[in-house]
Automatic annotation (TrEMBL):
Classification via CDD domains: ASKHA_NBD_GspK-like
Signal sequence range: none
Protein name: ATPase
InterPro entries reported for this sequence: ATPase_BadF (IPR002731), ATPase_NBD (IPR043129), Euk-type_GlcNAc_Kinase (IPR052519)
Annotated Pfam families: BcrAD_BadFG
ATPase BadF/BadG/BcrA/BcrD type domain ranges (all copies): 13-287
Amino acid sequence: MMAKQVEHDQLYIGIDGGGTKCRATIYSAIHGVLGTGLGGPANPLHGFERTLESIMVSTQLALQDAGLRVEQVHELYAGLGLAGVNLPSLYDKIMRWDHPFKQMFLTTDLHTACIGAHEGEDGAVIITGTGSCGFVLVDGKSANYGGHGFAQGDIGSGSWMGLEAVKAVLLDLDGLGPNTALSQVFLQHFNTNTAMGIAEQMAGQPSSSYAKLARYVLDAAKSGDTLALEIVKTGADYVSRLARKLLENNPPRLSMIGGLSEPLSQWLDPEVADQVELPKQPPEMGAIYFAMQSIQRQSEHLV
């Protein structure tokens, strides 16, 4: 029934792609949100073909959820916010993709997260999920900080916490570093009794695999484990410094999003934590706003 109602409506799809998952939301200019879908990792830096696959899986599931036909993908104006496309080579590669959408507008996941968090208005956002980074948009001017990727940056992120914890556990198990309760937790998690057993299973793993270990680090920190506390506090200190850097641009609002935004908030500097406001909309809606804004700019250029 919904499909008939919106058949001639202007339809949008907002796609938020990160290192762990890809979310899609289909939006009708008349009826609002129609459906959502969830796919796998969508950071082209860690797998270009996998990214395209995740985008299409999330799109097809969103179409199904919206009660739309598969071929109606050609009616969708797509806004894509993807991790990794801050690198020009990856941006160009995605833009050359023979996509199925009516039109596609591409930007970074940072940009769409910021647009969504402030419902299309100016502001700043910190993402603390699989990776970490900051973005600010004020009076048409933007700046981003961090977001250098796994494993050379992304301090305070899930992947960074997981990596730091694995390194610490391996040192502990070899008798070359301080003791940590994480060692027994990881031995159980990996179903092994040696440091090499952990190292072997994590060899060559992507950032998302390390990010899944972050919950153990946070739990151990809450329980008072000294080493886990050091990791969490170091990450939170970086995020606090990132927030202060963003606030130098005088944004009207600052939000934090991502899987670690809530658990990390209690470890932030109090003066920073006091300025963090809840996001108004998720990044997928930010991608939809971005598509709408891009179409508006196109129409203005034609006048």
